[in-house]
Amino acid sequence: MPSQQILLKKQKIASELAEKIRKYNSVMIIGIQGANDKMLAELRSRLRGLAEVKVAKNSTVVRALTSLKNDRPDIEKLAALATGTNALIISNTSPFILSTIIDEIKDSDWIKPGMPSPIDVVIPAGDLGLPPGGPASVLTDMGAKIKIVKGMIRLDEDFTLIHMKEKPSAAAASLLMALDIKPIPLSFQIKGAWDGVFIPGEQLHISIEQYEKDLVSAKLNALAVAVEAEIMNDETAPLILQKAAIQAYALAGTGAFFSPKEMEVAIRRAAASAAVLKTSAKL
């Protein structure tokens, strides 16, 4: 069992992390097992001035978050997400804004022999820049349609080298390395956030373009409702007055009342009606 000294040290580290979290309005937990050092460096760089990135043991994260549950309800739900390798993003910036930055940080990696591929790995048609034999021999073995042009291999059509969930051979992995193809996508996994309330990770992925369209649509709908309800403000007043003028003009044209302008319209309508009646009478 851990000694009392070790337990006290762990508690101290967790308390320090909890106090750090307490200084900010929001905290997010992201999985970093699908990321490399380059991505982590970019994450820290892009969030500089917006957030702090803290990597800690899961037990420390659980202790820190759980200790805050009395004054930050539901924050302990983040603790349940502390599995695998994670980082905490603590900030006064909205988690939705931070998530758009985090989602943009991506990279790729080599595929490893014997590990199930998460995707179909396709080699595009064209000159491969490789001579026959060596790493390229796997293409011949697998029945790919190739030609030798000026001593180099040309692939006649796209060729699926590895299917999804298939475990690649060492030869297939070597060919991809020779072609400088890193087919495995790397990204951070946004698991969840707390910003006064708990927000599941899947709700944090937003499209800025779609969000802007939704805002414009919501504004137009709100404006239409306000005009219909005749709620006066700087934006609706001109539209309400324009609508009233159109309705008044239409009502005047029916003969309910006349001004010189409406009288002219009414006379034209009457003349047109008389012409129709005259034509009908001749028939």
Q: Would you write up a description of this structure?
A:
This protein has 283 residues and is an alpha+beta fold. It has 3 domains: 4-105 and 188-206, Ribosomal protein L10, N-terminal RNA-binding domain (Alpha-Beta Plaits); 121-182, Ribosomal protein L10, N-terminal fragment, domain II (Molybdopterin biosynthesis moea protein, domain 2); 212-282, no CATH class. The protein has helices at 4-22, 37-47, 58-66, 95-104, 137-141, 170-178, 208-228, 236-253, 260-282; strands spanning 26-31, 51-54, 86-91, 106-109, 121-123, 126-127, 146-149, 152-155, 159-162, 184-187, 189-194, 198-200. The chain has a 5-stranded antiparallel beta sheet with strand order 2-3-1-11-12, covered by helices on one side. A hairpin with a 2-residue loop joins β7 and β8. α1 crosses α3 and α7 (208-228) crosses α8.
